[in-house]
Specification:
The structure is a single chain. With 77 residues, the protein is mainly β. The chain contains no helices and 6 strands. It has one domain: SH3 type barrels, CATH 2.30.30.30. A hairpin with a 5-residue loop joins strand 3 and strand 4. The chain starts with a strand and ends with a strand. 13% of the residues are buried.
Length: 77
């Protein structure tokens, strides 16, 4: 497994969300079904890019969430 930024994910990649701690077999993994870059305004009006991910969770099914462009994830080989 290697760490990558959320902006480097591609459709079909399987990953674990927590990029700072090596995942354990009990952690939830996701397979990317779709990606979209979305601008988000913070409290002070600054625009931050986020990656909106449509994924399939291997335990619960479909999932949709946003990650920061530079947020780290563990990519499964």
């Amino acid at each position: 497994m290697i760490t990558k930024k959320a902006s480097e994910l591609r459709v079909g990649d399987t990953f674990y969300r927590d990029g700072y701690h090596r995942p354990t077999p009990s952690d939830w993994k996701y397979t990317v079904k779709g990606l979209q870059r979305v601008p988000l305004h913070d409290f002070f009006g600054k625009i931050n890019d986020m990656i909106e991910i449509n994924a399939h969770n291997h335990l619960l099914g479909p999932a949709k969430f946003s990650l920061g462009v530079d947020e780290l994830v563990w990519l499964v080989d």
